[in-house]
């Protein structure tokens, strides 16, 4: 969390936000493990929603890089969910790479 935040209410929001990082990491790691297997069984809608929330909340709470990476990953997951070419190995690799970057940023935060 950025040091300039002094509001106790905002500090509580930031604490709740960061307390979810382990859960988010676990979800992303699970999806990455299974990405090249049973794509229809993956919780891609839930992952997209979680990434959307991260993208919108991270920067205002002092995590701009996490917000940018989550936004990029959200777009790639959305493309994967809605594309006829969902099984394209190039698209799967892009999604995997993007999710990996978000996971690493969550670990570093």
UniProtKB/TrEMBL annotation:
Q: Which UniProt keywords apply?
A: Phosphoprotein, Two-component regulatory system
Q: Which domain of life is it from?
A: Bacteria
Q: Which GO terms describe its molecular function?
A: protein kinase activity
Q: Which Pfam families match?
A: Hpt (PF01627)
Name the InterPro entries for this protein: HPT_dom_sf, Sig_transdc_His_kin_Hpt_dom
**In-chain residues carrying the UniProt-annotated modification Phosphohistidine:** 52
Residue ranges constituting the HPt domain according to the UniProt record: 6-109
Q: What processes does the entry annotate via GO biological process terms?
A: phosphorelay signal transduction system
Name of the featured protein: HPt domain-containing protein
């Amino acid at each position: 969390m950025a040091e300039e935040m002094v509001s106790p209410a905002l500090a509580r929001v930031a604490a709740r936000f960061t307390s979810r990082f382990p859960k988010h990491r676990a979800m992303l790691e699970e999806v990455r493990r299974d990405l090249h297997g049973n794509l229809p069984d993956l919780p891609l809608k839930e992952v997209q929603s979680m990434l959307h929330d991260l993208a919108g909340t991270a920067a205002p709470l002092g995590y701009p890089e996490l917000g940018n990476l989550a936004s990029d990953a959200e777009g790639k997951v959305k493309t994967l969910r809605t594309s006829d070419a969902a099984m394209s190995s190039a698209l799967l690799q892009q999604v995997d790479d993007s999710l990996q970057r978000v996971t690493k940023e969550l670990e570093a935060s």
